[in-house]
Amino acid sequence: MTEARTSILAALRENRPKGEADLVLEDIAIQYEDPFVSFSAMMKKNGGLVVAMDSAYSAVADFANRCGPDGVLLEGELAVAENAAIWIPFRDEAERARPFLAETLAVIVRRADIVSNMAQAYARIGTGELPGYGVFMAGPSKTADIAQCLVIGAHGPIEFVTYLV
Amino acid sequence: MRVGLFIPCYVDQFFPSAGMATVELLENHGCDVAFPEAQTCCGQPMANAGCSGDAAAAARHFVDTFSGYDYVVSPSGSCVAMVKHQYPKIVGNAASSVVSKTYEICEFLLDVVKVTQLQASCSKLVAIQMACHGTRELRLATGSERPALPTFSKPRQLLEMVDGMQLVELQRPDECCGFGGLFSIDEVDVSCAMGDDKLSDFQQARAELVVSTDMSCLMHLGGLSSRQDRGLKFAHIAEVLNGDWA
Amino acid sequence: MKHPEAAAGFVADSAKSSWHDQALWGVRTKRDAAVSAIPEWEELREQGARIKAWSLAHLDDLLVQFEAQCQQNGIVVHWAADGPEHNRIVHGILAKHRVKKLVKSKSMLTEECRLNEHLEAQGMEVIDTDLGERIVQLRHEPPSHIVLPAIHLQKEEIAETFHKTMGTPADMTDETELTRAARKDFRERFLQAEAGVTGVNFAVADKGIVVVCTNEGNADLGAGLPRLHIACMGIEKIIPKFDHLSVFTRLLARSATGQPITVYTIHFHKPKPGGEMHVVIVDNGRSALLGRKDFRRSLGCIRCGACMNTCPIYRRSGGHSYMATVPGPIGSTLAPSKDPKTHDSLPFASTLCGSCTDVCPVKIDLHQQLLAWRGELVKMGYGDRKKIRSMKLAGKVLSSPTLYKLAGIGARIALRGPRFVLPSEAKKWLTNRDLPPVPEESFRARYRRHQK
Question: CATH for A32-164, among 3.40.50.10420, 1.10.1240.10, 3.90.226.10, 3.40.1000.70?
Answer without folding.
Answer: 3.40.50.10420
